[in-house]
Here is the input.
Amino acid sequence: MIADSMVGLVKNSSVIREMFEEGNRLAKIYGAENVYDFSLGNPNVPAPEEVNKAIKEIVDTEDSVLLHGYMSNSGYEDVRNAIARSLNKRFDTHFNESNIVMTVGAAGGLNTIFKTILNPSDEVITFAPFFGEYRNYVSNYNGKLVVVSPDVTSFRPKFDEFEAKINKKTRAVIINNPNNPTGVVYSEDTIKKIADIMEKKQKELGTEIFLISDEPYRELVYDGVSVPYLTKYYDNTIVGYSYSKSLSLPGERIGYLVIPDEISDAEDMKVAASVATRILGFVNAPSLQQKVVAKCLDAKVNVEAYDKNRKALYEGLTKLGFECVKPEGAFYLWMKSPVENDTEFCNAAKKHNILMVPGSSFGGPGYVRLAYCVSYETIVNSLPHFAELAKEMGL
Amino acid sequence: MIADSMVGLVKNSSVIREMFEEGNRLAKIYGAENVYDFSLGNPNVPAPEEVNKAIKEIVDTEDSVLLHGYMSNSGYEDVRNAIARSLNKRFDTHFNESNIVMTVGAAGGLNTIFKTILNPSDEVITFAPFFGEYRNYVSNYNGKLVVVSPDVTSFRPKFDEFEAKINKKTRAVIINNPNNPTGVVYSEDTIKKIADIMEKKQKELGTEIFLISDEPYRELVYDGVSVPYLTKYYDNTIVGYSYSKSLSLPGERIGYLVIPDEISDAEDMKVAASVATRILGFVNAPSLQQKVVAKCLDAKVNVEAYDKNRKALYEGLTKLGFECVKPEGAFYLWMKSPVENDTEFCNAAKKHNILMVPGSSFGGPGYVRLAYCVSYETIVNSLPHFAELAKEMGL
Here is the structure.
């Protein structure tokens, strides 16, 4: 009775649920503290104290009808203004409230922008490995996701293949920086090269190609790595941001899109994004949370906790002989499967009470993703079990 | 540069913005208190006190990581359980948490269910006049909205036309009870007749046809009118609910879907709705607000305030010779335009500082909608201006 397009997704979702239930089953047998679940990107670091303080202050001081009521579909003007000013201060940009559309997290923002720009069978390019939901977000609007194969030495874009895949149908390129699932951060040089290729192809093809920068992990970077702000490198850039990780608010569904004035057809794009937010059923980003993030623009989650996890897991696993990409950002570690079939490897790990996600789910077969947004103890206690797994794998 | 499907919507949106700007322009000239804006369905009655109290209590007592974190895409199990139990108590149903999917308002819920069930070119039937967004929600999934013409004496469904319009392509019927824009409430007899026709057609055609009950105005009813709970009359019913009006929380985007066990293919439907919530970019309903509504299941907005407005406006306008449908629910009054062209009538009203929405926007030409979720003073003070308008119209 469900739609044809949902049949495969429901089947796939039961695979994920099986994994989840397997975790629960293991926890029941061995105790939750003896199951090492690296499968979920759900932050374990709490929201900074400013968040709950802001919630209470706002509720105590703001007019209830305005606070919980409808506002412009793009969000409260004062909130958008505060965000624009904060971005300008940090990245030397020159946005104002008209450039900001508040969204239901980054997922809501990406759907809003794809609805805004995609005609049926338009192509959106991304680089493998990539966040698996991109496939759904693009197909929601009858677009086609085109994947550039992974460079398995650096996990940075293969530029030649990228350039070759841009054609008349290419409407957008989406990058995720810092990257889920690899933890790689694209440097300024990488961004410049991407921008150069896109500029060149726009001229050659006489089309406009949007660069969509999906940045929920922007604030989670380590070792002083910096994440370039993309609107400065390419005019047709749209930024999708979320507070899910930067303020540990994934359940609250709050983020924004930046639509710069430099973009082609900027006025219509802004209005269309606002209309898309409405007609997709978001209507507007949750009102209280809009006010909250505006009050917490300088608040930070405890990134050091993630960094401590990162080091312990990366060092522990490499010492055991596993081949890992050293994460520079986000809270994921990308590890080579010692056997060709990454699902087989995940199943072997499960027998040691270790849960990981096969890289195939991200268009990166032969690898696995470990989400280290878990307690430090989980990491420390998991290492002896990884040691057994390594031995079993002949490392 | 925007998608073809968005071009018309952007143009239409500028008409609405023009109206909005006209309101602002008039307010600047004459003072906001001298502009009678009946155009927006934004509740002016504040949320009950329980809401802000619940927000603060939850923030003070719940674990931050769980409170602001991801949960199942369908929502917190305890919240869904509390809602199911509350429905069972009120309507003698027998739901449990598995029947409830928390959604980003009713708009999010309707999009979720259309994504779940619609194949391209499937038809969804509704009764004019209807909430204009249905057209967008259905076309988001490449479906086709089929409209049953209005019965302009009762504004209740024309059953013969309804039956004639059901065919092999009919996937769903959506009703809005109490109705926006007419304020009409369908009685049990009307619901039974709709259900009978649908049962008959299901058998005749050998298809499953879903009845979607869009009920954001369920709690706003007057004169003791009761709103039938549809799952009791027809097995293939899905209910879409929202707290936007019942708790005056439209900006917070919180509501739910009910998918009963009696529905065809219930297990797959529940999973598919949960997956649809995820892939459409909602991911889950805002987490804090889920907890809030679970704590406020017995709270009520001040319906008496709307009722006072309803009486004053209905009596005032009918006394002046305007022909109005007496509202039984919601906070809208549906009035016949004294001239054939409803847009022309709205333009004439604007000259008297009165803002209304042409019925054409709801598939009901020749009528206008007045949203009386405004202050009582606005209504009282508007009446002398309506009197001038009536005179001008020759009433």
Q: What stands out?
A: Chain B touches chain A through 79 residues (CB under 8 Å).
